[in-house]
Design a protein that fits this description.
mainly alpha, Four Helix Bundle (Hemerythrin (Met), subunit A), about 60% helix
């Protein structure tokens, strides 16, 4: 049986057809446990500190990643990415999961998460660094961190490369800064 033809102007018909086309939802690229652990290894290797965490902390890190993945799923991509990034930074900085480098790991993981999802943020911004430092000693809240990060996050035309390349880029371009933070 032949399809019924729509009646109307060309513009109306095109409009009807466009509304029928499903729009693909942007995929948020989340960090997995192995990648997060690698971030800490790379960060503490800069200063020769030990990379250590307990099995219990490994389980807590896995739960942290699940919490970040589940957060803001009902929001648009543009709203969800900064919120998930702030939660990732907050949880790592406040959780003290690793023996060394927790705040630096939080900075690198958060900025890398943003880069991987097409955003940029200056890891060296003193307000950002100070807020993460305050989060690490329970003097700043998730809302404080989100407010700071929201004002600094920028859309960037970044190619979606592998996590390793994104991590390496953030660490390599900020090596001296990260080493100075350890003292």
């Amino acid at each position: 049986m032949p399809k019924a033809r729509r009646q109307g102007t060309v513009q109306e018909i095109i409009s009807w057809e466009i509304r029928r086309v499903p729009v693909a939802k942007k995929t948020i690229h989340h960090m997995d446990l192995a990648t997060l652990i690698q971030v800490n290894k790379d960060v503490v290797a800069l200063t020769g500190e030990p990379h250590e965490y307990s099995p219990a902390d490994g389980e807590k890190l896995a739960a942290l990643i699940s919490e970040v993945e589940a957060r803001a799923n009902n929001q648009d991509f543009e709203e969800a990415v900064p919120e998930k990034g702030a939660l990732l930074v907050f949880k790592i900085a406040s959780g003290q999961y690793f023996r060394a480098g927790n705040k630096r790991t939080a900075l690198v993981a958060g900025v890398t998460f943003l880069v991987k999802n097409g955003y940029s943020m200056d890891i060296r911004n003193p307000v950002f660094v100070s807020t993460v430092d305050r989060v690490g000693v329970a003097a700043a809240s998730l809302d404080d961190l989100f407010e700071v990060m929201s004002g600094l996050v920028k859309k960037s035309p970044t190619e979606r490369k592998g996590w390793e390349n994104a991590i390496r880029h953030v660490i390599d371009t900020n090596r001296a800064f990260l080493v100075r933070l350890s003292s």
